[in-house]
Design goal:
There is one protein chain. The protein is mainly alpha-helical. It has a single domain, classed as Helix Hairpins. It contains four helices and no strands. Helix 2 runs antiparallel to helix 3 and helix 3 packs antiparallel against helix 4. The radius of gyration is 17 Å and the shape is globular. The protein starts with 5 loop residues before the first helix and ends with a helix. The mean pLDDT is 96.
């Protein structure tokens, strides 16, 4: 798979996103929340810096959700049995998603406050 042309690599990435979409309810929920954030941002029409902050927040949450899914897939394949270290690794990866979600929520709240104060 290494050194393939751009379109092949793009296809692999798209395939990964589609497969994660099918397997992970969390990803689907995050996408829905991202769409809601986009709609609210459009409705509030804040400055471009807020639009950029919201877009980056959504991208970060979705990227970390995809990485979390990838980590879980690899761990489950390599070690299908329950083990404390496996649980810890999965919990830490999920924690990264949670931290990004909290950050995205703060960005959204600050944008709303900014629009209504300004």
């Amino acid at each position: 798979m290494k050194n393939r042309d751009f379109y092949h690599r793009l296809g692999f990435a798209a395939s990964g996103i589609v497969e994660a979409w099918r397997r992970e309810r969390s990803l689907r929920a995050q996408v829905v929340l991202g769409v809601v954030a986009v709609v609210v941002t459009i409705a509030l029409a804040p400055g471009l810096i807020w639009v950029a902050a919201v877009a980056l927040s959504i991208a970060l949450v979705l990227a970390l959700e995809l990485l979390n899914t990838a980590v879980e897939c690899v761990i489950d394949h390599l070690h299908p049995d329950d083990a404390p270290a496996i649980k810890l690794a999965k919990d830490i990866a999920a924690g990264a998603v949670l931290v990004a979600c909290i950050g995205a929520t703060i960005v959204g709240l600050l944008m709303i406050v900014s629009v209504f104060r300004g």
